[in-house]
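Handout, page 2. Input:
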Amino acid sequence: MLLNTLFILLAVFLLGFCIFIHELGHFLAARRRGLKVERFSIGFGPPIVRWERNGVDYRISWIPFGGYVALPQLADMGRLEGGEESEEAGLPPISYADKMIVAVMGAVFNLIFALILSCVLWIIGQDIVVSTEIDRVLEEVVSSDNSVLPGPAFVAGLRPGDRITAIDGDSVDTWRKVERAILTGTGRNEKGEPEVIVEVLREDTPLSFVVNPVLISREASRDIGIIPEGDLHVSGVVTGMPASSAGMMPGDVLHQIEGKPLTSSAILSKILASHEAGPIDLAVLRNGQPVTLSIEPKWVEDAGTKQFGFLYGYLAKTERVHLNPIEQLSFMAETVKRTLYALLHKGSDVKVRNMQGPIGIVDVISIVSHYGPAQVMWLLAFINVNLAILNLLPVPVLDGGHMLFATISKLSGKQLPRRFLEVTQGAFVILFLTFMLYVTFFDLGRIGHRIGFGEDSEPPTAEEALEEPKESGSP
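Output:
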């Protein structure tokens, strides 16, 4: 419990540091250009702590949805962001160049930080699933409504050993690109069903398959039922629970259940959940040798469910790679672009509810922290690329909105009315907070589901954490 708390505190600090980096860019640019800086805040609303130095009000505020630097010459956001009115009277106007440079420097600093992290990863390397060769094609998958359906890839004709070369015409050379392409796909057939074109090499022969993905997991995300090389393994055993008493050990490879081969954790989860009474035989491989365990679930009064007491997940075979920073940042930027496109495309199954707010991001950072510094650095770089791109969107209250208003004023030759700016910014602040509350609701649902109100799940890798739910569980 103490260790988990430390990971959560570390995650809060790291997310706050990413926000700090962004606002530091605005702050230093404003100072360099001679603008008045009234306030530097991490978070919105009333301050938790505050101090003043060289005429600047520094604060950490209660609403952890971002941060801001109050620059009355750029945009009077004091009443909206900090709950106080700025003193704009008597301040000289600033040039268009000043406005654009100060507004863009937050994103620039995020990208610089992401570049530094990527350079470190280039040196130390990162473990990822490199091969695009299919190890398992699932004959059955469990859909988001808990129905068992034929595996889409199996039905379409894909087979183990096929090496995926392209999806929907886009070439793929790592497994995470395969997952990203399927997850953010927008294709649909004439019946309105999800559709993806998968190109493979089968014994050096190029083949193309039309596959109809199904929606899986609580996130209702697209999946075609293929798995890279790896094993379904036991990641944890709860002391005093039936699995522990039966002799199950972390690292055991889950092989068979009641004499039938185990193909995926989703199928295992469904079988265990539907088991009514009596022991169930689980065959595991331990150091390559088969061991059969007879486990009878125990009713846990506090949870209101029967439990076996072990965690499991699919552990794919990874390789240590040293991708150069440009490759890393390009992948991250492309992921953000594809996600935004999918959000706006009517053919996609990516919804706003699939996005993560500050609470969800903190949770992801805390669980990825279990995998060590390299995974955390990758995730922080990815978060900073996200912050940079999203803040440059031409939406009021974001940096891109300030740049848009400055450009409109420059082209029209006159300042936009103060009342118009206040009303527009105020309306978008309300929309922004509503959006944050909406995604936070789903963040809390995911966290509650993970820690025991439903299935527990194994921590995802850095790529999986922000791209696709990991197939895992805890009976």
